[in-house]
Amino acid sequence: MKAIVLFGSPGSGKGTQAKLLTGCLGVPHISTGDMLRERVLQGAELAQTATAMQSGLLVSDELVNGIVEERLARPDAAEGFILDGYPRTLPQARHLRAWSEDRGVREVVIHLVVDYNIVIARLTGRRQCPRCGTLYNLVLKPPQRDNLCDLDGQTLTARNDDNEQAIEERLDTYERETSPVLEYYRTTPAAMLDVDGSQEPPERVSEQICLSLKNR
């Protein structure tokens, strides 16, 4: 059983790669951001959780750890899973490490390395279909019809945390809180894979990752 941990700054392509790797590896994609946004819409979490997300800030470790453990207990994650957006802090990384060791789960960390300017272009132009979740970018990967999903014709939307102020805060938070997690993983037995996510199309990047994982 493997825990695939996708690592990278906001806009590095973690969500896109997670969806592609799900098809390659046959294990579920688990996005903490999606789960938190869903809970906020359902009214399951406190108002400050929504405020923190819209401001680009991190949600409490206790809340996120609990949500992730609850999700990993489902039957579809029994053979492995892909984590997108978790862990984001050292306490979360240590929590996952202890959870994995208790269950004999091997962590594989995939670090998506993307140039800062490309990250900014991706985030400011990012749009998503509210029905099927397909991701687009107005500059890098525009829909065939203006602001409409190619698959179901739904009007595309921008995330609340993709405004300029929130983007700056998210990148600052990543450097301050999340980058040390990558350095922590380099001191553990977890397998590490650094991948250039700037130049090649997402499908090609996914193929390279799948090949490396299968070889390991």
Notable traits:
single chain; 216 residues; alpha/beta; Rossmann fold; five-stranded parallel sheet; two-stranded antiparallel sheet; 16% strand
Radius of gyration from CA coordinates = 17 Å
Order of helices and strands: EHEHHHEHEHEEHEH
Q: Estimate nothing, just give the exact number of structural domains.
A: 1
Strand arrangement in the largest pleated sheet: 2-3-1-4-7
The count of β-strands is 7
Q: Cα distance, first to last residue?
A: 13 Å
Q: Multimeric state of these chains?
A: single chain
Categorize the overall geometry.
Answer: globular
**Overall residue-averaged pLDDT value:** 85
Strand content: 15-25%
Task: Provide a compact summary of the structure.
With 216 residues, this protein is an alpha/beta fold.
